[in-house]
Amino acid sequence: MKVSIPTRDENGLEGVVEQHFGKAPTYTLIDTETNQVTVIPNTSEHMGGVGLPPEYLHKNGVNIMLCGGLGFKAVTMFESYGIKVFVGAEGTVKDTYEAWKAGKLHSATAENSCSEHGHEEHHHH
């Protein structure tokens, strides 16, 4: 599998996690089988390029996205490309990757990412 983490630089495992995935200048990819680390530039629309991050990452073979946190729509978009999202990433890429492997990051599946807002939507008077 390939894990992706939004990052501020090209320092690989020592890179700093960018909390806003759309604004990340780079994405650091880790192949979980070979532990090979690749850093790719974020060329999505936010940075003046084309395509949305989920589509771009999907094309790069990413299966899992680790980030600080993101909105319900973004989670749904990633899931539509078959990418699972985990939130709670912080520190360096290595910190985040180790935390994910240890099961410390939370899955941001569409069902539970915005549970506190989910109830209000059904009670419009």
Describe what this molecule looks like in 3D:
This is Dinitrogenase iron-molybdenum cofactor biosynthesis domain-containing protein. InterPro entries: Di-Nase_FeMo-co_biosynth, DiNase_FeMo-co_biosyn_sf, MTH1175_dom. Pfam families: Nitro_FeMo-Co (PF02579). The chain is of the alpha/beta class. It has one domain: Dinitrogenase iron-molybdenum cofactor biosynthesis domain (Nucleotidyltransferase, domain 5), CATH 3.30.420. Helices cover about 25% and strands about 20% of the residues. The chain has four helices and six strands. It has a six-stranded mixed beta sheet, sandwiched between helices. The C terminus is likely disordered.
Low-confidence stretches: 113-124
Mean pLDDT: 85
Please give the radius of gyration in angstroms. Answer: 15 Å
Computed structural class: alpha/beta
How many structural domains can be distinguished in the coordinates? 1
What does the oligomeric state look like here?
Answer: single chain
Based on the structure given, which CATH architecture is correct?
2-Layer Sandwich
How many beta strands in the DSSP annotation? 6
Percent in helix: 10-25%
CATH topology: Nucleotidyltransferase, domain 5
Beta strand %: 15-25%
- Specify the biggest β-sheet: 6 strands, mixed
Following the backbone from N to C, one meets helices and strands in this order, namely EEEHEHEHEH
Number of helices: 4
Summarize the structure.
The chain contains 4 helices and 6 strands; from the N terminus they run βββαβαβαβα. The protein has 125 residues and is of the alpha/beta class. The chain has one domain (2-122): Dinitrogenase iron-molybdenum cofactor biosynthesis domain (Nucleotidyltransferase, domain 5, 2-Layer Sandwich).
